[in-house]
Amino acid sequence: MIDASFALGKEFLLPLPLPLLPSLIHAAVQDSLPQIVASFPLAVIEREGRHLVLDRRSRRLLVLEDGSLIKSFSVAVGMPGWETPTGEFQVLSKTPHPIWEHPQSGKRIGSGPKNPLGSRWIGFYRDCNGRDAHDGDRWLTIDGCVTSGFHGTPHRWTVGRAVSHGCVRLFEEDIQSLYRLVKIGTPLKVLP
Question: What residues are paired with 6 via a beta bridge?
Answer without folding.
Answer: 14
